[in-house]
């Protein structure tokens, strides 16, 4: 637009010069044509000079306005920068004060939790195949043919397995792990004294993945350890959350044999529990009887460390009622769980009934509580109450339900 305006002004000057030249040559003033042309040029030059002077003045005014606005902006920016520096200084002072007040144990707790999470993330990351990567054979590995891969179950095709594996892996990576709680009640009052925790994986659409599905997939894909580890860690997080909400309940949390033998995760987990020893009053770790009996010295040392921190143990999946109570005490076991049907079967036989009474007496003397689990019917409970069972668990008292604090 400015170029067009200047062009129009130039045409006006040319027209004015032409008019003046014609007037001088034909207006009767008697001027020579050359003189008329010279006069017209002088007028044109004067007009052009005047126009440029006006344009220059306009540009100077615009430039002065721009410089003024830039100066004002620079002043505002300087004030804002000074204020920001003041805020940074205040934040730095506040951070330093908070860091001085923050107990080192809290910092260690955060670090230990991050290490556990890092271990879990590493386990979830796809690992290169050792044979494909050309790794050297382990010199300590036993000689002989490699064990055959487990046969896939007939109910799953290869496509089904791949889809199930993707769903399970995504659920673990996205932390779609739900914790379910089932009450353990005192008898005969039936008051909730503890909860047993069960963990379930959830698909992206919200549907629950049954353990029978994800455990089979995990076994075939070599993910069973990371699933067990993730579920255990999720359980501990829930117990920690309930303690912060002053929900003073005890929680039974299962530790699988895969976790016990996981040399990369379990030591880190114990270190994490070392910084969460306040959970010892609320958290009972549960093992199968066979897993507690058949372990090496390394696992025994790890369990001793948990026990030294104040954590209690529970034993379930009892294969025989001939319990070695002294061994249970040595392992710091505080609870023994036996299925109600197994107890009633033994109690129905006069000879076996004596063994049950002796077992219960030995447990009472050792301070170990007996929990009858899988109580499904009222009649079962009535029969068990005659034998002084300490606690009961089963669908009669409540089925596993999602934790309300699991968010």
Could you describe the 3D structure shown?
Helix content is about 60%, strand content about 15%. It is of the alpha/beta class and about 400 residues long. It folds into two domains: about 1-80, no CATH class; about 105-125 and about 155-400, EAL domain (TIM Barrel). Helix 15 links the parallel strand 8 (about 370-375) and strand 9 (about 390-395). The longest helix has about 70 residues, at about 35-100. The two termini are about 65 Å apart. Mean pLDDT is about 75; it is low at about 125-160.
Q: Kindly name the structural category.
A: alpha/beta
Summarize the main sheet. Answer: 8 strands, mixed, barrel
Give the overall silhouette: rod-shaped
> Kindly, what is the distance between the CA atoms of the first and last residues, rounded to a whole number of angstroms?
63 Å
Supply the number of structural domains.
2
CATH class of the largest domain: Alpha Beta
**Main β-sheet, spatial strand arrangement:** 1-2-4-5-6-7-8-9
Report the β-strand fraction as a percent range: 5-15%
| Whole-number mean pLDDT | 74
CATH superfamily of the largest domain: EAL domain
Please name the CATH topology of the largest domain: TIM Barrel
Low-confidence stretches at least 5 residues in length (pLDDT < 50)?
A: 126-159
Assembly classification: single chain
Q: What does the radius of gyration come to? A: 43 Å
């Amino acid at each position: 637009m400015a170029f067009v305006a200047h062009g129009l002004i130039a045409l006006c000057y040319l027209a004015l010069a032409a008019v003046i030249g014609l007037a001088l040559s034909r207006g009767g003033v008697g001027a020579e044509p050359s003189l008329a042309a010279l006069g017209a040029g002088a007028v044109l030059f004067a007009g052009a000079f005047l126009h440029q002077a006006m344009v220059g003045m306009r540009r100077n005014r615009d430039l002065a306005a721009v410089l003024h606005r830039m100066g004002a902006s620079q002043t505002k920016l300087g004030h804002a920068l000074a204020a920001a520096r003041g805020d940074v200084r205040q934040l730095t002072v506040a951070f330093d004060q908070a860091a001085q007040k923050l107990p080192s144990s809290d910092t260690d707790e955060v670090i230990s939790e991050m290490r556990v999470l890092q271990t879990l993330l590493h386990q979830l990351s796809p690992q290169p195949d050792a044979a494909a990567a050309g790794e050297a054979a382990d010199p300590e590995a036993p000689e002989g043919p490699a064990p055959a891969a487990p046969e896939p179950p007939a109910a799953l095709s290869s496509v089904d397995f791949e889809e199930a594996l993707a769903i399970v892996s995504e659920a673990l990576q996205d932390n779609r792990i739900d914790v379910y709680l089932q009450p353990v009640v005192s008898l005969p009052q039936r008051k909730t004294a503890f909860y047993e925790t069960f963990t379930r994986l959830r698909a992206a659409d919200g549907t629950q993945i049954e353990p029978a599905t994800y455990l089979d997939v995990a076994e075939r894909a070599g993910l069973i350890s990371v699933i067990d580890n993730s579920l255990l860690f999720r359980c501990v997080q829930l117990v920690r959350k309930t303690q912060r909400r002053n929900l003073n309940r005890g929680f039974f949390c299962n530790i699988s044999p895969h976790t016990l033998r996981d040399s990369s995760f379990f030591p880190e987990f114990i270190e994490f529990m070392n910084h969460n020893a306040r959970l010892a009053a609320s958290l009972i770790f549960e093992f199968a009887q066979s897993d507690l009996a058949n372990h090496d010295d390394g696992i025994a040392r790890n369990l001793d460390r948990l026990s030294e921190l104040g954590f209690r143990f529970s034993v379930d999946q009892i294969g025989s009622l001939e319990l070695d109570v002294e061994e249970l005490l040595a392992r710091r076991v505080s609870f023994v769980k036996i299925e109600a049907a197994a107890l009633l079967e033994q109690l129905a036989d006069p000879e076996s009934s004596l063994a049950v009474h002796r077992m219960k007496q030995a447990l009472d003397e050792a301070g170990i509580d007996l929990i009858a689990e899988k109580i499904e019917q009222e009649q079962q409970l009535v029969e068990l109450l005659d034998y002084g069972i300490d606690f009961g668990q089963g669908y009669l008292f409540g089925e596993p339900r999602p934790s309300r604090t699991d968010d």
